[in-house]
Amino acid sequence: MADPQSNAPLRAHAGAPTSGVIHVRTRLTADFTVISNALAQRRGSAVTVGVAAYIASLPDGTPVTIPALCKHFSEGEILISRALRELEAAGYLERRRERTSTGHVRTRTYFYDVPGGDPHTEPDPDPDGPPEPPKPRGPRKQVAAAVVAPASAPPEETVAAPAETEVLIPLTDADPRAVAVLAGLRVVDPRLILSARETARLAPAVARWLAAGLLPTHITDHLTARLPDNFLTRPVGILAYRLKEAPLPVPARSAEPAVRPLVVPLRNCDGCDRGFRSAEPGRCRDCRAGDPLRAAG
Fold first, then answer.
1. How far, in Å, CA of 109 to CA of 129, rounded?
2. What torsion, rounded to 10 degrees, do the Cα atoms 270, 276, 281, 286 define?
3. Residue 47, by phi and psi: left (phi above 0), alpha (psi -120 to 50) or beta?
4. What is the dihedral of CA 41, 43, 45, 49, to 10 degrees?
5. Which of 67, 167, 194, 283 could join 287 in a cystine, given CB atoms 3.0 to 4.6 angstroms apart?
6. How many CB atoms lie within 10 A of CB 89?
7. pLDDT tens-digit profile of 28-82?
């Protein structure tokens, strides 16, 4: 007996959606980047998502500084800098100051597909195997530890290292007046937008200048005067260099208020009735000079 056959379709065709986006999928085998939906669908600025997607598509070693990103995107330094700070706060981007084998300190940028993980972990030798999901990591705190030279560094490398060690205090412990001065720099020059980490780095030096007797306007004028037209790096380096100088001399103020001279009263001469100024009543100078002459004649 022949097998029974049915003319009914195996599954009803749902058809295209009546609204919204319709995806036309193409299987890519080269020149593509995998981005998590959490990053691609992140609420907020589209510039932040675009910068993150661009950085994720770059090979290791490509510069991702603000000037390098501004050459690729049409947005300016302010929007690019804001996007990098948002990615850093969300845990996708991390800047670390590390000491090289020669003893110098440089900044390295790490980009995470998913916030979390160790940047020093060796890559998986079997990329086709199932990857282990990284442990989720919350946003970075705005507290940085001091950069300490490794104990095993040879003497010649230690000599090449910077003489001063920078210690960052929490922003909440910084002098509010110093924080206000640094936050007001962007009013004078819109390029001087400092992150919370950069503000915490500069606040102690500004506080020392304020303690030396300088007014906030004096410090602002000193930090914003004769700035270059283009910043090759973040402006925090220029501000930190200027704050390392000795505080500007405070103009000396007299402790005693200036005494206004007394006005000598106006009097009438007893001889010629002409007005003249004198502390006591009497004759004017001409009348006093003429008296000896008349007496001699």
1. 27
2. -50
3. alpha
4. -20
5. 283
6. 14
7. 888 888 888 888 888 888 999 999 899 998 888 888 889 999 999 988 889 999 9
**Closest C-alpha among 176, 187, 115, 172 to residue 142:** 172
Question: Do 161 and 104 contact (CB within 8 A), yes or no?
Answer: yes
- Residue given tokens 């940047």 in the structure block: 119
pLDDT digits (tens, 9 = 90+) for 185-243: 888 888 888 888 888 888 888 888 888 888 888 888 888 888 887 777 788 888 888 88
CA–CA distance from 142 to each of 77, 88, 247, 260 (Å)? 22, 10, 28, 56
Q: Is the pTM of this model over 0.90?
A: no
Map tokens 């283009």 to a residue.
Answer: 230
In whole angstroms, what is the distance from residue 164 CA to residue 205 CA? 14
Structure-token match 């505080």, residue found = 247
CA dist 68 and 62 (Å) reads 9
